[in-house]
Amino acid sequence: MKLKHKIKIISSMAKYLVSAGILSIGLIAPLALSSSANAATVSSRSIQMSTAAQGATGVTYTVTFTPSGTSVQSLVLDFCDSASSPIPGATCTTTAGVPDFTSASVSSTFMTSLTAGTKGLGQIKLAGSAASTASTAQTITISNVTNPTSAAQTTCTATNGSGCTFYARVYTYGNATYGTYSSASSIGSAVDTGGFALATSQSITITATVKESLTFCASKTQPSAGCTTGVAAPTLTLGHGTPVALDSTAVDTDTAYFGCSTNANGNVVVRIKGTVPTSPSSNTIPAVSAGGSAGPYSITAGTAAFGLRIGTVSGTDYSASGVTPIAKYNSATQYSWDTTSATNNTNLGAGDQIATVAPATDVWAKINFAATASLTTPAGIYTASESLIATGTF
Amino acid sequence: MVLKINNVSSKILLASFLFLLCTPMLFSSLAKATTTSCGTSNCVTQSSVSPGGVVNACSTNYCLNASLGDTGIGNSSSTNYRAYGGYTTTADPYIELVTPNSVTSVGVLSSSSTSYTTAQFSVRAYLASGYTVINGSPAPRAVSNGITHYLATPSTPTASTIGTEQFGINLVANTSPASIGSNPQQLPSSSYSYGTAATGYNTSNLYKYAQGDIIAQSASSSGYTTYTVTYIFNITNTTPSGFYNFSHTLIATGYY
Fold this sequence. Notes:
Number of domains of chain A: 2
Helix content of chain A: under 10%
Shape of chain A: rod-shaped
Distance between the termini of chain A: 108 Å
Radius of gyration of chain A: 43 Å
Oligomer: heterodimer
Strand content of chain A: 25-35%
Number of domains of chain B: 2
Helix content of chain B: 10-25%
């Protein structure tokens, strides 16, 4: 009985000792561990890439962190592949699957004249001409970096983009020569350290098509936007009196319109090509000023001539926006019918350009045709057939 | 007497365990080294405090992390520290952005209807103060007649309007122009994952797009959050023709 009681007492004492031991470990452990932390940790740290696309070039890495405030004059940024870790001093593979800083440049106000030293695959070293003691947030911008490729990131899954993480570490040093740093796993006496995780990603690609669009019409009346309404057959009659006829006493006119809607960002060229008024016996009313190309020219009653013009008043003679008449047709009173240019109204090429249309939904212009006869113009019914041609450049 | 001693002993044991758990919080300045420091000769690794568990039990090709009978899950934090409880966790800061390797065509755009599509991406970040996801790409563009045209993008959240040139996105469920999109999904649940759509991209039926905008974020470490991005396209009759290409590059940045 006494023996059993002694055993219980010993058992109780043992529990006291175990408890005391655990308490001691709890108290002492943090003290013991603190001695292993030989560098402070930079806080509020991040590295933002201007693009996370795999293999992208010309990428900007913006490194932000808050140092401890202890004087430093250089720092090392090591980047480790996805199989490594962000823990300073741990094994770090920098030979593949990491960004390339070979052509990188740097800007920052962290230290005076902070410039890049050694730079290459997975590493860039930076040093200033004077020490910094700042303990506020600092930003270092590293430009012209090449992101790791998917193929180089061995854990990166091409099908769903997972596992494309890689890591970075920053170490700061009190002198301009990176302290006793020798490698990513032998960082020497760093003042501050910190780890980062980054990730590249595949891009989500979406495509869409916008079709080329050109709506064009000729009309006796002003057409609506897109030529959907207000379009009438452009049949014109030049003359006066009863029956309607040309003579040498007047210049007779009539009008037609063209309408246009387009998304051609290279504009639409509107040309006209056709004939001067011609009788069944092949007599003609000649082009104004002998078909000269330097118009506009005046048509005088009694001097046989034929021509056209687009007026000069925006909103009245043509739509308030989107149309620009060509100069030789842009007149309030004078006309042109070019038969001499390389591409003219009558014979050669695709016709002579009378206006330019910019991308718009409701462009129109009023075309004024005019003719007069001379005293010697042979009698007859004169007809002319003109084609309006719109060509979009997309 | 014996019974009394046993009771006291149990209480001390319990107190001792609680003290061990709380010590890093109490000695906040000393605990810094335990969270991130790993020098050339010393590392602090994670532990399993549970009825059973194993950390990094590895064969040649496989590793196993397991725990048994977790009594607490989730995380708690003070000003300077955050503690994670639950299934075996990693000791490394980590961020992962998962995007589909997809090419989607919305076909021929029209000034009389809205074209739309969706895509998903997922983000998780660990041992972080949070993360942001940023639009890294300019708007859809086409080269026509040697001129590069970018589709117009609303600078503020705007409803989809047919016949107006618009390209916009949001990250929530919508009913207009159709029942498309989805609110962020927390995986496995909202107890572990906290990502949200950012302001400007979190209102149903309103769309915007700006390169450099934060579109998704979490204010703390988070498990997987899967985001569904809804893309809308509207054009006018004068939108330049061409083959519009949009490579949506997402930039996930972890803050530590």
